[in-house]
Design brief:
Elements lengths: L1 H8 L4 E5 L3 H13 L3 E5 L2 H10 L4 E5 L1 E2 L2 E2 L1 H10 L4 E6 L4 H10 L3 E4 L4 H9 L15 H15 L4 H8 L3 H9 L5
Parallel strand pairs: 1-2, 1-3, 3-6, 6-7
Antiparallel strand pairs: 4-5
Helix pairs in contact: 3-4, 7-8, 8-9
């Protein structure tokens, strides 16, 4: 399979990965290198745009929400410098509006986190007409909800009252959810 993937990648194997989650970024970069890509990584919109301008990649994986801005800015820069690049947008916030915006700007595909290297590779190498196959083990709806609540909780500096207000739920309900183990 690795030989087939190398053929599918083509001559230019450059891959830019932009994500502010450093452990995830390192894991994905290592996994993509094992699949034959020549990876370069960035932790911010500014760094991603600088790399895309200096060395436009053939492939890119860009997180939608980064600490210093919107990942779609990086996608736009890549599209300006290299219109044939294949770009996959990753996000922890799966919403139809952001998926439409990503595709309009020029993303090849849109994946919800946590996406593994197999999902990313399939999306990057999919033909324009053929969609990549659905994930083998997608997250359950309960797991997606739990992940979203955890993310908002972390963004609110683990403040239960603020998180409950932003999620429009009762504080005690949120406390019960946070006390439970994550669903499968």
């Amino acid at each position: 399979m690795a030989e087939r993937e190398l053929q599918d990648i083509g001559e230019d194997r450059s891959l830019l990965i932009v994500d502010d989650d450093e452990p995830f970024l390192r894991r994905l970069a290592r996994a993509m290198e094992k699949r034959g890509f020549e990876t370069e990584t960035a932790l911010s919109v500014a760094a991603g745009k600088a790399i895309a301008t200096a060395r436009p990649p053939a492939y890119a994986v860009v997180d939608l929400r980064l600490e210093d801005g919107n990942g779609l800015d990086v996608v736009e820069t890549i599209r300006e410098k290299r219109p044939d690049a294949r770009v996959v947008v990753l996000t922890g916030y799966g919403a139809i509006a952001t998926a439409v915006a990503a595709v309009k700007i020029g993303a090849t595909d849109y994946l919800s986190k946590p996406a593994d290297a197999n999902d990313v590779t399939a999306a990057l190498l999919a033909d324009g007409d053929n969609l990549p196959p659905p994930p083998e083990n997608p997250m359950s709806a309960d797991r997606v909800r739990w992940e979203h609540i955890q993310r908002v909780y972390e963004l609110c500096d683990r403040n239960v009252s603020e998180t409950a207000r932003r999620l429009n739920m009762h504080r005690r309900t949120l406390q019960r959810i946070l006390a439970k183990r994550s669903p499968r």
